[in-house]
Amino acid sequence: MATEIEDYSQPVLPGKGASDYERYLRTDELLSLQRSPEEQVHRDELLFQTVHQSSELWLKLACFEVEGATEHLRKNETAAAIRLLRRSVEGVKIATQLLDQLEHMSPWEYQSIRRVLGHGSGFDSPGFRSVRRVSPSLGDAFNALRRDSGLSLTDLYVHGREHEDLYQLAELLIEWDERVSLWRFRHYKVVARVIGEDVVGTQGTPVELLAGLIKNKLYPELWQARNELTALAKEDD
Ligand code: HEM
């Protein structure tokens, strides 16, 4: 019986693009989302847009996983939540690392790119807005589980070995919080290095104000628990 030989060079998926790779990933559209050389005021616009667009994608994924983890916590599925939160933390780490690339721009030449940004400002970043939107519900879902177990945060840390999943979750929440602050710190340094610390941004915000935001905490109670543990240890001395 003759068997039909599959021609792997031909795409089978619907959509635009010469191959299934290009069709599934929609690379034609993706790679046309950056200004063309004719549209650019400076060749570094490609670097600038690539860093911003990829940051938006990684933050989108990170927040999607935080939302998924929150849903799992509401159903008491702690291990599944832990699995997704690891991805979220990794996503913010990657977004932080992406900032390094911006320091390859000349501060003088960046000024010509800055002129074409209009009132564009990071305060309107959908990715970072999502971070602010999804984080409180994650904290609420975690705290509801912890309370159901009859534990204060200090109890949870003192008896962490007996509540492994809740302990791991507490550590992932503080890690998410810390990574967001580290992104802010790194972003602040990039801004200071590229446009300076004593200037105002494209939406009129003094850059100085960004430095103040580094101290913002998503889960202050988790940081406070450390102070309480230190005080508790002192009582035991
Ligand atoms: C040369 C590169 C960059 C410069 C000069 C810059 C500059 C600034 C400035 C001046 C602000 C204050 C608000 C304003 O008036 O605009 C700001 C805020 C912000 N930028 Fe950037 N930025 C850069 C890269 C990025 C990148 C790659 C992202 C990635 C998403 C980003 C996201 C943000 C966010 C989220 C805020 C709000 C800060 C917060 O809530 O902590 N920025 N940026």
Structural notes for this entry:
With 237 residues, this protein is mostly helical. 65% of the residues lie in helices and 0% in strands. The chain starts with 19 loop residues before the first helix and ends with a helix. The mean pLDDT is 96. Residues 51-52, 55, 99, 102, 121-123, 125, 127-128, 184, 187, 190-191, 194-195, 201-205, 207, 210, 213 line the site of protoporphyrin IX containing FE.
Give the SSE layout:
Blueprint: H1 20-25, H2 27-30, H3 45-74, H4 78-98, H5 107-114, H6 126-148, H7 153-158, H8 164-194, H9 207-213, H10 220-236
Helix pairs in contact: 3-4, 3-6, 4-8, 6-8, 8-9
Overall, the morphology is flat
Count, helices: 10
Order of helices and strands: HHHHHHHHHH
Class per helix and strand makeup: mainly alpha
Q: Note poorly predicted spans.
A: none
Q: Which percent band covers the strand fraction?
A: under 5%
Distance N terminus to C terminus?
A: 84 Å
Helix fraction bin: 55-70%
- Cα-atom radius of gyration: 23 Å
Largest sheet: none
